[in-house]
TrEMBL record:
The keyword Cytoplasm belongs to this UniProt entry's keyword annotation: no
Cited InterPro entries: Acyl-CoA_Oxase/DH_mid-dom (IPR006091), Acyl-CoA_Oxase/DH_mid-dom_sf (IPR046373), AcylCo_DH-like_C (IPR036250), AcylCo_DH/oxidase_C (IPR009075), AcylCoA_DH/ox_N (IPR013786), AcylCoA_DH/ox_N_sf (IPR037069), AcylCoA_DH/oxidase_NM_dom_sf (IPR009100)
Cofactor(s) required for function per UniProt: FAD
Domain (Acyl-CoA dehydrogenase/oxidase N-terminal) ranges: 15-101
GO molecular function annotations of the record: acyl-CoA dehydrogenase activity; flavin adenine dinucleotide binding
Domain Acyl-CoA oxidase/dehydrogenase middle: 133-221
Family: Belongs to the acyl-CoA dehydrogenase family.
Domain of life, per lineage: Bacteria
Domain Acyl-CoA dehydrogenase/oxidase C-terminal: start-end pairs: 248-364
Annotated protein name in UniProt: Acyl-CoA dehydrogenase
Organism: Paenibacillus yonginensis
Keywords, ordered alphabetically: FAD, Flavoprotein, Oxidoreductase
Pfam families given in the database record: Acyl-CoA_dh_1 (PF00441), Acyl-CoA_dh_M (PF02770), Acyl-CoA_dh_N (PF02771)
SUPFAM superfamilies per the UniProt record, alphabetical: Acyl-CoA dehydrogenase C-terminal domain-like (SSF47203), Acyl-CoA dehydrogenase NM domain-like (SSF56645)
């Protein structure tokens, strides 16, 4: 296998994965050239998603039976990391689609006919999916809040009314899943909703980082969902492995920051030195710290993804490890970007350089699921429940 010795390529295992990475690297380089403008505008990267569709990226996790590539979790992590190296917003946004499809593929929580129809549409037309659960009053759905969005029976299905926040990909989706409370049953359920004139996108997304994810509010004004589009099954418990698309994204951002700082250290030579700052012990120490953070986090991320792939019967028991991978990777990624900025110095604050965007984007990982206190509690519970 002919791969270079760059650190980012360390976890490529085969010629097939190398080909996948080469394809995504081209996309990442293209997206990196657009990232600054889209970040300043806070605009959704429609052009990037057209390129992803053309490259076949949107069908990577779809089952082969329905025309997809059916890649593993390990491969998804590797490719999402590489895409985020170019543009974190695009990677995080498309990661929700890739991850959700992987989750549906392994859990089979959707009726097969519904899942098959979606998969074929995705392969043929580039259709994407995401699940909208967050609400202003309930916060993150991972914390167990009851949705204020309601679903009431109607002829042939349900009428859904409510407002969802943090609705990533909302500008481009023609269908999505929402969680809603059913008063008649005193129960919650999920519904696959198609975008009609009863669905309004309110452009509220104006944030510090990850400005291009299109995570606006979605308002449902009695949107109709056919009876067949109610998701009644929780499916098999896959441990939530698909959520590793999140730390993979933040690791990609950290790697981009690391490489920028390394190039700076190799080339920047102030006039009081006879050689570039790479020769300074203080700079070497900071580089060593970056490497320590990155190598620790990446080894955990890839080992956990590989275990999830190879141990399907143990996926439920892997939840503490999956959460730990998110916790370690996200926090280490933040430290890496901070160290990169210390190496580059005051110019790292310039909006003409990518480091300040990396700094803003990488912090968003703290607010993606699973949340830190939940992860820590899960780890504690796992320890205390040992016999």
């Amino acid at each position: 296998m002919n791969k270079d010795h760059r650190f980012i390529n360390q976890y490529i295992r085969s010629e097939q994965e190398l080909a996948q990475v080469d394809m995504v690297s081209e996309l990442a380089a293209l997206f990196a050239g657009r990232a600054a403008k889209q970040d300043r505008e806070g605009s959704f990267p429609f052009e990037n998603f057209a390129d992803l569709k053309e490259a076949g990226y949107l069908k990577l996790t779809i089952p082969k039976a329905y025309g997809g590539d059916e890649i593993s979790l390990y491969e998804m992590v590797m490719l999402q990391e590489r895409l985020a190296y170019g543009d974190g917003s695009t990677a995080l946004a498309v990661g929700w689609h890739l991850g959700q499809v992987l989750h549906l593929r392994t859990s089979r929580k959707w009726p097969e006919e519904l899942f098959a129809a979606f998969c074929r549409s995705s392969v043929e037309h580039g259709t994407m999916i995401n699940s909208f659960a967050s609400e202003a009053a309930t916060g993150s759905p991972s914390r167990g809040g009851k949705p204020e969005t309601t679903a009431v029976p109607a002829e042939g299905g349900w009428l859904i009314t409510g407002r969802k926040t943090f609705s990533t990909l909302s500008p481009i989706l023609d269908r999505f899943v929402v969680t809603a409370y059913i008063p008649d049953e005193d129960a919650m359920s999920e519904f696959l909703v198609e975008r009609t004139d009863k669905v309004e996108i309110v452009e509220t997304w104006d944030t510090l980082g990850m400005r291009g994810t299109g995570s606006h509010d979605v308002v449902l004004n009695g949107a109709f969902a056919p009876a067949a589009n109610r998701i009644t099954s929780k499916g098999a418990d896959d441990g939530g492995g698909w959520l590793l698309h999140i730390p993979a994204c933040y690791m990609g951002i950290a790697l981009a920051a690391r490489d920028y700082a390394l190039n700076f250290a190799r080339t920047y030579q102030p006039n009081n030195l006879n050689e570039p700052i790479r020769s300074l012990p203080s700079v070497q120490h900071q580089i060593g710290q970056m490497e320590s953070e990155l190598r620790t986090a990446r080894s955990l991320l890839y080992a956990t993804a590989d275990r999830w792939d190879k141990e399907p019967a143990s996926r439920t028991e892997l939840k503490p490890d999956l959460g730990l991978a998110k916790y370690i990777v996200t926090n280490h990624a933040i430290k890496v970007v901070d160290l990169a900025m210390r190496i580059v110095g005051g110019t790292s604050l310039s909006r003409n350089l990518p480091l300040e965007r990396y700094y803003r984007d990488v912090r968003a990982g703290l607010h993606n699921p699973p949340m830190e206190n939940t992860i820590i509690q899960t780890l504690a519970a796992a320890a205390l429940n040992e016999e």
